[in-house]
Design a protein that fits this description.
98 residues, mainly alpha, 3 helices, elongated
Length: 98
């Protein structure tokens, strides 16, 4: 009798939304880069270095998140393509073009 009324107990597990992580880490990357540029322009080199380091950490986190949701998200695939293009441009023109 009770078997029809009773449902199996589900355990609540911690779920990570990789796409949300990608969004927030990319936002941190952009914000950190802009703050580093502003601090450098205002002649605060130490603050600029710290902001650039924070931006680099956010960029690495965004790559991890994009890689984790690569198969299920078109946005993640486009983001990784954009990152690949950015890396290629940096390699080609990173030393001043010559």
């Amino acid at each position: 009798m009770q078997s029809g009324l009773m449902r199996p107990v589900r355990q609540k597990t911690f779920s990570v939304s990789w796409l949300a992580g990608l969004r927030w880490s990319f936002g941190g990357y952009v914000t950190g880069t802009l703050l580093a540029a502003g601090a450098g322009a205002l002649d605060f080199p130490l603050l600029a270095q710290v902001m650039l380091l924070a931006a680099a950490v956010c960029f690495a986190a965004s790559l991890v998140c994009a890689g984790a949701c690569f198969r299920g998200s078109k946005i993640a695939r486009w983001y990784l393509l954009l990152v690949l293009v950015m890396i290629m441009v940096a390699v080609l023109f990173g030393n001043g073009g010559g």
